[in-house]
Amino acid sequence: MPVVLAADLVVLVARAGVEGLAHLRDRAEHLSVALPAAGGAPPVAVVVVAEPRRGQRSVQHAEQVLRAAGTPVRAVGWLGLDAGGLEVVQAGGRPTRSVLLRTAGAVTAGLVDLLPHHPAPAGGPRPAYPGRQVQARP
Q1: Domain 2-134 in CATH 3.40.605.10
Q2: What is the pTM of this model?
Q3: Long-range CB contact pairs, 30-36, < 8 A, 24+
Q4: Where are the chain's structural domains?
Q5: pLDDT digits (tens, 9 = 90+) for 96-114
């Protein structure tokens, strides 16, 4: 649990479907109890992996499961199952019309919104994400 407490954001990834949502509920309940309720605890978000035609509905189902369990965890979006897009990415290419990349962009935006703000130092390295420094490009 020390790693979770040191994190700026905890992301649970769950497959759509009864079994995936049941595991999600169990993990979310465990984290809700284990993390301190007041201050210092990172936000917990959920990303659902789903078939493209069921993506938004899968997020709604995950939200219903999380609410019924009484957890403060919320779903931020879904990643589309896209075998073709994944093959192109694994081969080093950049798919132009990939459900995987399109949904990943939307999920990334939702996750970034949950991060605490880390202002970039003037003239120095800027955080790519909390805990990692990269040099600013000229």
Answers
A1: no
A2: 0.76
A3: 31/4, 31/71, 31/73, 32/70, 32/71, 32/72, 32/73, 34/1, 34/4, 35/4, 35/5
A4: 2-134
A5: 778 888 898 889 988 998 8
